[in-house]
Amino acid sequence: MRRGQLTGQMQSWYQDLLEGRLTHCDHSLDAVFHLTADRSNPLVALKLSTQNREPIGDRAIMKTLLLVLSMVAAAREATAQEDAQCVRERAAMVETIRAYGRSDASVLGQQGLSERVLEAMGQTKRHLFIPEPERSCSIAYADRPIPIGLGQTISQPFIVALMTQLAEVAPDHVVLEVGTGSGYQAAILAHLARKVCTIEIIPQLAEAAAKTLRDLAYDNVSVRLGDGYGGWPECGPFDAIVVTAALGQPPPPLIEQLKVGGRLVMPVGPGYTTQQLTVVEKIAPDKTTTRAVALVRFVPFTRSQN
Fold first, then answer.
1. Nearest CA to 242 among 199, 201, 211, 295?
2. What domains appear along the chain, each with residue ranges and CATH number?
3. Catalytic residues
């Protein structure tokens, strides 16, 4: 049964209760309790708690049903209010990063961030990629990095947009991301590319990101647990590569897996200090050009002990 159908039936039964029509105990309970097979639903919990008990009065049953339905309605209203707030905060975030993009012509030129990138930022629910303690809309859509545990962060939205812009992702592109983290950058890339392959070395983060991306139906994203230094040859070659952790120089295996004409975007420099956001463009099978774009601060690139 679809969610909309379920809600409509619940409202109908609720109206029936208010008008005093459900006076036959057995029929009423059977109609409501067979509503859904989801045992996390409070109606089912109520069914389980009343199995094998003697029938109780119609008035008590009606009061219980009214209470349950009121709780469901309140929860739905709270969710709707939160969703509406997140939409507003996300729209404000997009305008903030749009303004940032235009404020420094030396980085992106007079045009700033492209509308494709801004649309991807506006379509991606950043709050769902953030751990519960920080998952308020006002925090999630502030233009700042947020800790996600295990010494890692979800990057500042403007930096995510900037790196995405510099990668010049097209709709038919295959993109590699090294450093999945929460999965937010991968989700942004998924709106723009045909296929995204992303690697995370920390098992807990890889598992959580894969679940979030799967739950949000990002079907063109593949998550792999492992050391991203060696890239992902089976998934490439790549039109663009985005690395979300700092290293002293771009890994040679990543350059090898980059198509001619492709771009690698990553912070270059030591960890836990200022680095240069760098764009490496592969102009021939054995030739690249490199340019530094902006000063950034990323966590260090983590390597496998093996």
1. 199
2. 3-79 (no CATH), 113-296 (3.40.50.150)
3. 155
